[in-house]
Amino acid sequence: MSKQPIDPYKHLDIVLNPNRTLTRLRHIPHTAPSSDPTLPVLTKDLTINQQNNTWLCLFLPRIALSPNPKKLPFIVYFHGGGFIVASAASTMFHHFCAAMSAAFPAMVASVKYHLAPEHRFPATYDDTVEALEFIRDNNDEWLTKHANMSSCYLMGSSVGATIAYFVGLHEIDTAPDLEPLKIRGLILCQVFFGGTQRCESEIRLEDDEVVPLCVIDMFWELALPVGVDRDHEYCNLRAEKWVGKLGMMKELGWRVLVSGNDGDPVIDREKDLVVLLEEKGVDVVSDFDIDGCHGVEYDDESKANQLILVVKRFVS
């Protein structure tokens, strides 16, 4: 008996409309920012571009409000969601950033960017570049008083890690223009790459319950510019445009953490990234767990705490 093919749209409860927009049927819980002084982490939103409806949520550990506080490591975080769903306000990402902010302690800025297919690449990358420039120029007291701008890491989970990687490479050419914001490295959790040739883990985990291969294909089909394949520079980590910049990453002294789980269909691409960075002499730390699926840290608090500890050690 042949197996029933998976419908990627039903899998995510979305409908592709005739005008190439999406109707997103699944309710994703949101968490609003709060300045409740009894909470371990205070949060607030700052508008980046009102016309584009882009913003960031700042996470400030309450301990930073003590007299004579030290400036905190600064993490700019990009959420997951396959480029097509969720936002910085989604509860699973909000709670993870809050937990990470409290555990270090660290200042975290979680960025809300445009979603595909209504806004295909490079819209997402344009949003995130604008977010970094906004942070550089903003005089908000939380940023100026508590964030150590000279110790900034770009971090993301899943497609958010892909955004962090490509935006980081994009900013290498103009790194001095971001000062006093100074990027020290990248933190890439279950980073999401693709290519026209299947990797072994994609084939092995074709029917994965979380992100089956047909869903991975759909993500790229909806996010990439119309008419390109998955060897495009926004998708394939070995695209010539970016590989040539890795030597500059080494010269700048950036460090890269790559974290993943063997139950993730794109784990082999994550491991290939480590190989590529090592080939180019970049200081890379790998953290691969034999247990866990894609996005496991949002369903398993122990896995979230484990990941946060790895990130804290990397940044410290």
What do these coordinates show?
The chain is α/β, with parallel strands linked by helices. 34% of the residues lie in helices and 23% in strands. It contains 11 helices and 10 strands. The protein has helices spanning 8-12, 91-103, 123-137, 141-146, 159-172, 200-204, 213-223, 240-243, 246-252, 267-279, 301-315, and strands spanning 14-16, 22-24, 41-49, 54-61, 72-78, 107-112, 147-157, 183-189, 255-263, 283-293. It has an 8-stranded mixed β-sheet, with helices on both faces. A two-stranded antiparallel ribbon has the order 1-2. The longest helix is centred in the middle third of the chain and has 15 residues, at 123-137. It starts with 7 loop residues before the first helix and ends with a helix. 42% of the residues are buried. The mean pLDDT is 96.
One letter per element, helices H and strands E, the order comes to HEEEEEHEHHEHEHHHHEHEH
Strand arrangement in the largest pleated sheet? 3-4-6-5-7-8-9-10
Unreliable segments of 5+ consecutive residues:
none
Describe the main β-sheet briefly. 8 strands, mixed
Coarse morphology:
globular
Look at the structure and give the mean pLDDT: 96
**Total number of helices:** 11
Helix content: 25-40%
Cα-to-Cα separation, first versus last residue: 54 Å
Estimated share of beta-strand residues: 15-25%
SS elements, strand count: 10
Radius of gyration computed on alpha carbons: 19 Å
Helix and strand content put the structural class at alpha/beta
